[in-house]
């Protein structure tokens, strides 16, 4: 197998991803990006998915079998204007720098992945793109921009305001300071007040059972375009995640599930980012959404978060709610791009971002 400084191979092979490739995929992406996901991450993402096997292909050196390129796509189930369809989330795409001048490397992983999407009657493909990746996807891969999804933030500590180049030298805090503790108590009081006034309780859930299926069946027609957030998806996306410790908070009213919220804290680059990754509540229950968000903010502040973030669509639903709890849009956003296959007939519906219910659950970034 070739090492980091080894000579570039002239012969490449292309094939679908297999379970035994996960270690090599982890090595590929650890070389490309500033963070690493171990092989267990890729195995769970690709091969434990309740929506089906991955739509992913590799470029490998013919002489040593080193993975030098990968297009990593996973199927997801969507509710699309009243019907169910399969979409694809592009988790990651990467080619080693020394192979990027060979266009066949990109096309060798892209074209068979595209064929998979046709063969499996994929409705749409979505990705959160960097500016450079967006240019390639729009020009060469038939993607179109959906929108810039706003990132909502609340700074908790002074550390969150320090420039990154200086902050990276610091060790992220493992527990809350005086400001975090004070804000945690303030948010918790607001959550408790709403719970008492509207007669429901909030607790951490250790089991994602059929109550989440019933919640989804009651909430699924609120938006034309949405991921199917049933218990099978939530277990795969959050509960069984091999590298992140997600917390699922549930609101119970009379023993029935009225909503849930998912949180996570990422400690990297000298800062602790508290992340609100997903939320779903019953229709016409804004008090449940508000209380869950206050509770999530309390937990994240109390756990030492320097900043709290999340990105959400549609803005008409989320912005008043997030503003109330102190999260603001400050100009940062994420570019969502789409390619339509069988969903082409409802293009006007899909390309209206106000028709999407979109959170961190729709990506694998938070």
Structure report:
The protein is an alpha+beta fold and 366 residues long. It has two domains: 12-122, 3-Layer(aba) Sandwich (Aminopeptidase); 150-333, Aminopeptidase (3-Layer(aba) Sandwich). Helices cover 34% and strands 31% of the residues. It contains eleven helices and 14 strands. The chain has helices at 22-32, 39-47, 103-119, 131-140, 164-167, 178-198, 210-219, 231-239, 286-302, 315-325, 347-350; strands spanning 12-16, 57-61, 67-80, 83-95, 124-129, 144-155, 201-205, 225-227, 247-253, 256-268, 271-281, 307-311, 328-340, 356-357. Strands 1, 2, 3, 4, 5, 6, 7, 8, 9, 10, 11, 12, 13 and 14 form a 14-stranded mixed beta sheet that branches. Strand 3 and strand 4 (83-95) form a beta hairpin. Helix 1 (22-32) crosses helix 2, helix 6 runs antiparallel to helix 9 and helix 9 (286-302) packs across helix 10. The longest helix has 21 residues, at 178-198. It is globular and about 65 Å long. The two termini are 33 Å apart.
């Amino acid at each position: 197998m070739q090492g980091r400084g080894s000579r570039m191979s002239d012969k490449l092979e292309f094939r679908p991803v297999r379970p035994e490739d996960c270690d090599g995929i982890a090595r590929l992406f650890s070389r490309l990006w500033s963070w690493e996901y171990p092989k267990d991450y890729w195995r769970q993402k690709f091969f434990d998915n309740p929506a089906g096997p991955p739509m992913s292909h590799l470029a490998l050196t013919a002489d040593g079998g080193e993975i030098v390129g990968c297009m990593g796509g996973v199927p997801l189930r969507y509710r699309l204007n009243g019907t169910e369809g399969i979409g694809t989330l592009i988790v990651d795409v990467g080619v080693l720098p020394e192979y990027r001048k060979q266009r066949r490397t990109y096309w060798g992983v892209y074209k068979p992945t595209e064929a998979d999407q046709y063969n499996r009657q994929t409705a749409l493909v979505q990705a959160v793109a960097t500016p450079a990746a967006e240019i390639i996807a729009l020009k060469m891969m038939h993607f179109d921009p959906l929108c810039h999804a706003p990132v909502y933030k609340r700074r908790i500590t002074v550390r969150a305001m320090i420039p990154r180049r200086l902050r990276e030298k610091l060790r992220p805090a493992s527990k809350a300071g005086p400001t975090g503790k004070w804000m945690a108590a303030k948010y918790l009081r607001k959550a408790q007040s709403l719970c008492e006034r509207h007669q429901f309780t909030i607790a951490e859930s250790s089991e994602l059972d059929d109550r989440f299926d019933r919640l989804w069946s009651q909430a699924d027609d609120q938006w034309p375009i949405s991921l199917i957030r049933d218990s099978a998806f939530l277990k795969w996306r959050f509960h069984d995640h091999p590298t992140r410790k997600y917390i699922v908070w549930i609101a119970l009213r009379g023993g029935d599930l009225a909503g849930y919220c998912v949180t996570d804290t990422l400690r990297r680059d000298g800062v602790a980012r508290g992340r609100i990754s997903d939320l779903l509540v019953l229709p016409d229950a804004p008090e449940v959404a508000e209380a869950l968000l206050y509770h999530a903010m309390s937990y994240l502040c109390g756990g030492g978060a320097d900043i709290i973030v999340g990105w959400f669509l549609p803005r008409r639903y989320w912005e008043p709610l997030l503003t109330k709890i102190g999260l603001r849009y400050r100009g940062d956003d994420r570019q969502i791009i789409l390619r339509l296959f069988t969903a082409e007939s409802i293009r006007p519906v899909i390309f209206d971002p106000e028709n999407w219910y979109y959170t961190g659950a729709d990506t694998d970034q938070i």
